[in-house]
Protein 1
Amino acid sequence: MSDKPDKFIDDDGLRLDGRRFDEIRPMKIEIGVLSRADGSCYLEWGKNKILAAVYGPRTLHPRRKQIPDAALIRYRYNMASFSVEERVRPGPSRRSVEISKVSAEAFEPVVLTKYYPNTVIDVFTEVLQADAGTRTAAINAASLALADAGIPMQCLVSACAVGKVDGKLVLDLNKEEDNFGDADLPVAMTQDGEVTLLQMDGNLTPDELKESLEMLKKGCTEIFEIQKKALYTKFGKDPVLDVDDIDDEDDEGLAQIQVELDDSEGEDVELDEDYLDVDEELEEAVEVIEVEEDPDKKGISNLSDEKEDDSDEQ
Amino acid sequence: MSSEVMARLKKDYIYNLMLKGEREDKRSFDEVRDIQIETNVIDKAEGSAKVQVGQTQLIAGIKLQKGTPFPDSPDEGVIITSMELNPIASPIFEPGPPNENAVEMSRVVDRGIRESGSIDLKKLCIKEGEEVWMVFVDIHVLNDDGNILDAASIGAISALLTTKIPAIGEDNDEIPVPVRELPVAISLVDIEGQLMVDPSLDEETICNTKITIISNQDGSICGMQKSGNGGLTIDQVLEASEIAVKRASEIREKHLLDI
C-alpha cells in the first residue's frame, strides 16, 4: 500500500487524479457481454473493472426459501482473488456477505418482484479489478444487467460515494482518498432521489451529511445519464443515434417506461395492498416474458415499443 | 406461510395504530425502550456486560489474546467483533455459522467502535511488529424482542469500558482498555413513511426499511447503515440522523458515563 499523501487537494482545488471535488471518474459501459446470462454488463469506472450478470427469474431452490407472492433477489458481490494488490482469499468473506445483502436490498424497491412469484432473480457481480468504490460500481453494472435481462423495474439504480479528505467533501473516492480519507459514504439512489442503499463509516457532522447527500444526488443523476446512454447505444431503435443527443429527446425511452410502470402500479408499489389488479399485472408480466423470448429483440427496447403502442391507442 | 399471514395482519395493526399516532407499546415515535445494563457479569471474561432493551437481552463478552499485528499497522492492536444469533433467542434462529443478518449487525457494531476511534489501538501494542493485544468482542444474543443491533452496540461499548488488560511481566499492573469515545447506535424503522425509533420485534419484522446511525459524543456521525427492502428519502435520512444523535446522547449520559 502506498503512503498517505501530504495533501489530497492542491492549491487549484484539484484532487490527486486531477478531478474537481464533485467530479466522477470516467465510466465505460458495455451491455450484453455474456452469452449465457439473461442479462449482463461490463463496467469500468476509473481503474475498477466490474462484470455483472443476471440469471432469471428462475425457480428458487430450496423451495422453503420461495416467496409466494414475489421473486427473491439474490445478489452476489465477489472479488476476484487477483483484483487487489494483496491476494484475496476466494470465497465469501464477512465483508462480501454484508455488501451482497445490502446491494440486494438496494434493488428490492425498484424491481417489480411481484410479477414472478416463487422465483429467484440472481444477480452476480464480479470485481475483476478493484480501485475504490467497487460496491457502487457493481450496483451500477448490476442495474444495467437487470435492464438487459428485461426484468421489469420502476427505474434504474445509480450508486456513488462521497468521502472526506483534508476536511473537504469529495465525490467518488479514488484509492488514496478511500484508504486515508476521514469518511466514506456509499449511496445508491433512484432517479427520484430515493435512497436504496446507504452505508457510512468515518466521521461526518450532521451538516456535512446533509451536504454529502446533496452531492450524491447530483453524482447519481450524472451516472444515471451515463447508464441511460449505454442502454440507448445498445438498444436504441436508430442504430446511428448520436448518444449525445439523447438528453434532448425527453419523452423517449426509459423515462417513458418508468411512467408506464408507474401508471399500471399506482403511486407506490410497496404501499399497494390492493391486489385486485393482479390479473392485469400478470397478463402484463406474461407479455413481458413473451417479449423476452423473442430471439430477435430484447427486453428494454421492446418495453419502449410496447409503450408506443399504448400511446397510439390513446 | 403462517408467519407471512401473521406479518400481514400485524402490518395492518401497526399501520392503523400509526395513523392514530400510536405504537403498540404506547411509546411515542421517537422514544426508546427502557435500557438496563449490568456489567461484569462473566468473571472469566476480561470485560462483559448484559444489556436488556425492552425484552431483548444479550451479553457482550470481551476476551483478550496476544497475537501478531497486521503488517500495515504494526504498532496497533486488533479489534474483532462478532455476533451469534443463538437459537435460544428466537424460534426463527437456527444453529450454524452466522447468517447474513448476524454478519451485517456485527460489522455495523464493529464499524461504530472502529470508526469512532473509540479504542486507542496503539495502547494495545505489546511489541511493535511482533505482539499486540487482540480484543475479541463477542455478542451473544439471548432473546430477540427487536432491535438487537442497538442493544449490541450498547453492550459492546459497556463491556469494553469494564475491560482490563492483564499485567505483563512483574512490574506492570493490569490497566483498563483505553476507551476514548462512546459510540452509540440508534436504529429507526420506516413504516409507510413514519420513522419509529428503537423498533419492537413486530415493528422490525414488518418494516420496509431500517436505518441505523452511530454517533459520537460531539454529535458527529461515525457510521450508518440502511437495511431492508425499501428506500428512504434524503429528508428521512436527515430526520433519522437528527433523532439518532439526540437519543444517543441521552443514552450515553444516563447509562454509559458512570460505568
Note: The mean pLDDT of chain A is 83.
Protein 2
Amino acid sequence: MHPLRRLLPAACLALAATAAAAQPASEAGKTAAGDPWERYNRHAFVFNELVDAVAIKPAAQFYQTVVPSPVRKGVGNVFGNIGDAWTTFNLFLQAKPAAGLNMGMRTAVNTVLGVGGLFDVAEEAGLERFTSEDLGQTLGFWGIPSGPYLVLPLLGPSTLRDTSARLLEVNDSPIVRVWQEPRDHNPAALLQLLTIRAGLLNAGRVFDEIALDKYVLLRDAYLSRRRSLIYDGEPPDGDAPDQAPYKKLLPAW
Amino acid sequence: MERRFWMTGLAAAALLAATLPLRAQPVAADAFVKQVSADVIDAVKLDKAIQAGDVGRIRALVDAKVMPHVNFQRMTASSVGPQWRSATPDQQKRMLAEFQTLMVNTYAGALTQVKDQTVAVKPLRAAPDQTELVVRTEVRGKGDPIQLDYRLEKAGDGWKIYDVNVGGFWLVDAYKGQFSKDLSNGGLDALITRLADKNKSLAAAKN
C-alpha cells in the first residue's frame, strides 16, 4: 500500500473544508480577501525562493546546458504525453466528450506512432494540445470554490481546492501509473521538475523584473490563471457573480 | 465616340479609387490586433539586436509600433484606482513616465522571447456597434500556445488597447495588486518613488 494513501482522508476533509469555506470573493481578482493565510504563505514563499535559488534553478540551468536540445525536447514530449492522458481523463470527468476524444486521439497517436510520446507526431498531423486539465480544474468546473490561497513548501502556489485535488492525484497520477515503483517514479518526478523549471528560466527573469512584490504577483497570477483555466479562458467579468462553469452545459430553462 | 466614353469611365474609376483611402473604412477590431501583432513580430524577427536583448532597440520598437495603439493614460488610471482622480497634474505626469518605463521593460523582456511564434486571432464575438470589446488571440510557437487577449476601445475610426491578458492574467489587475500596498501606505508619491527605484535598478542591471 502506498504510504500516501493515508493522506486520502485528510484530502477529503480538506475538500469538505473548502466547500464549507465557500465564498465567491475568494476567487482571483479580489485578491487580499482570498489570502487569509498570508502570514504562513509568505514564510513558505521565502523558503521556496531560497530552495529554488540554491538548488532547483541551478539544477535546471545545468540540465539545460548539459543535455542537448533534441533530448530535452523528447523528455518534455514524454511528460507532455503523460499530461495529455491525464487531461483526457479530466475532460471526460468534465463532461466534455468531444474535447476528450480529441485529446485521447492525440495521446494514442503520440504513444503508438510517437514511440511512447517521445515525438509529438500528432501535432504535425494537426492534433494540437489545445488544453491541459487536472483534477483541481475538474473540481472547479463542478463548482467547488478555490478556497484560500496556499503556498506549499517545495511545490509552490496552490489553493485549498487544488491541494486537495493534488492529494487525490498522488495515488493515481499518470507518473505513478507509468513508473509504478517509487524508485522509478521519484527520479521521473525529479526529471519532470527540471524540465518544467528549465522551461521557465526566461519567464522567471521577466517576472522578477516587473515585480514590486513578487509574492503578490505570483499569487495574483496563479489565482487568475487557475480561474481562467477553469472557465476555458473566458472567466466571467469582475462584477458579475461567479457561476460555476458546468452550468453552461445545462439547457436554459 | 466610343473611345471617349471609355476614357471618361476610366478616369472616373481612377478618381474614385484615389478618393477611397480618404474615406477610410473603420477597421475591424480583430483586423487591427492582427495587424499590430504581425508588425511587432515581423520587426523582431528581422532584428538580430532585439533578439539579443538590446534594450535601446526594443524601446524604439515599442515606442514606434506599440505605444501609439495603447491608451496608456487609461491603463495607468485603472491600475492606480481612485487615487488617480485626486492626484495633482504633476503627480500624474511623473506616474505616467515611471509606469511607462516599467511597462516598456516588461514588454522588452517578453519580446526577447519571440522566435518562431505566430499569432492566431480568434473569431470576434461582438456586436458591430460595440465601443469596448475583447479580442482573443493565441501565440503559437514551440510548446503550448499562450493566451493573449486585448481589451480595446473605439478611438475615432480605429482602436486603442487599454488592457492585455497574458495566460489568464490581466495586466491592469496585475499592477493593481502590485501598487495597492504602496498606495495605501504612502499614497501616490510613495508608489512613484518605488517605481523610480525599480526602474533605476533595472537600468543599472542592464548596463
Note: The longest strand of chain A covers residues 149-152.
